[in-house]
Amino acid sequence: MKIGIPKEIKNNENRVALTPAGAKELTKRGHQVFVQQSAGLGSGFSDQQYEQGGAKILPTIQDVYGVGEMILKVKEPIEEEYSLIQEDQLLFTYFHFASYEPLAKAMIQSKAVCLAYETVEKPDRSLPLLVPMSEVAGRMAIQKGANYLEKPLGGRGILLGGVPGTLPAKVLILGGGIVGTHAAWMAAGLGADVTILDVSLPRMRYLADIMPANVKTMMSNEFNIRKLLPTADLVVGAVLIPGAKAPHLITKDMLSLMTEGSVLVDVAVDQGGCIETCKPTTHEDPTYVIDGVLHYCVANMPGAVPYTSTLALTNATLPYALELADKGWKEACKQHQDLELGLNIIHGEVVYKAVADTFGLPHTPVSTFLK
């Protein structure tokens, strides 16, 4: 199979979908890998390293899309890429369709096969291709939140862990999944007073067992959120409903409960955000203030640490990419139900129900295409 690796062109997106080592694994199996010139530089990988891995370097993004039977990416295609996508071409990347209807409609029109990292799902309901970036984003949420609590950046001027004789900052985490867990570990390690809200009692029992004493758990509901917001210095939105838009757990009117200079970090922004006042921002212009509360809503947080993120992502995606390349998408998805669940749009038909429901579009069973 011919595999194309375009350079990511989303604002300040420095990750790349494949490492030179990954290119070597694919070429060893007889596949051809085409990498856009300088695609890996942001992550610390040179064109020469890809060539040593057996890949061919192509000068433009048009060349890569033109030759690739499977396109491996990190982030969803942006508008200037829509016209490059070909009918029947397999796109394997993060899509997060539920957060942006124009993307879904463009991919329907392209008649490509869209296989989304974020909805590949194991029998135990885990999301193996979302986990590595959720781990990065959860840890970064605290790193960024602690930074923006500093007065020169618009925050209250609070040190997350405090010092002897002063109280630490209070961190509220909405969601106890992968993002929430890693955020809690980071915040706890810095000495903050951490509360995780979740709707699953088994999950909260698990978190209570593994977390240090400065992390508490609490049932997630509107009453408890309103109770905790007045004392929260940093709030991390870490809610995920696979393939669907995140619910708004913090509404605009709730901002009036918060102290001026407190910080919101919404990691769920690429699924629409779990904070009503959230809107996607970029690393170039990451924050804005509403009602005195600083919002950090960068939609590609792991792109700021591309070396770590690219290695972590490729570790997870490469086994699936090898299956798709070796067997073709139909046979690979027939044999691996987790891959089948990654299929969102096929030849102009929406096959992932949560995406269809979000936009009121017709839903076609994926089995229609896997006969």
From TrEMBL:
Pfam families: AlaDh_PNT_C, AlaDh_PNT_N
EC number(s) stated in the UniProt entry for this protein: 1.4.1.1
GO molecular function, one term: alanine dehydrogenase activity
SMART domains, A to Z: AlaDh_PNT_C, AlaDh_PNT_N
InterPro entries (alphabetical): Ala_DH, Ala_DH/PNT_CS2, AlaDH/PNT_CS1, AlaDH/PNT_N, AlaDH/PNT_NAD(H)-bd, NAD(P)-bd_dom_sf
GO BP, one annotated term: L-alanine catabolic process
Annotated positions binding NAD(+): 134, 198, 203, 220, 239-240, 267-270, 298-301
Cofactor(s), by name: Mg(2+)
Binding site for substrate: 15, 75
Textual note on the cofactor: Binds 1 Mg(2+) ion per subunit.
UniProt KW keywords: Magnesium, Metal-binding, NAD, Nucleotide-binding, Oxidoreductase
Record domain Alanine dehydrogenase/pyridine nucleotide transhydrogenase N-terminal: where: 4-137
Catalyzed reaction equations: L-alanine + NAD(+) + H2O = pyruvate + NH4(+) + NADH + H(+)
Binding annotation for Mg(2+): 323
Alanine dehydrogenase/pyridine nucleotide transhydrogenase NAD(H)-binding domain mapped to chain residues: 149-297
Record has Cytoplasm as a keyword: no
Active-site positions on this chain: 96, 270
EC class name: oxidoreductase
GO cellular component, one term: plasma membrane
Family: Belongs to the AlaDH/PNT family.
Protein name from the UniProt record: Alanine dehydrogenase
Organism: Lunatimonas lonarensis
Lineage, uppermost ranks: Bacteria, Pseudomonadati, Bacteroidota, Cytophagia, Cytophagales
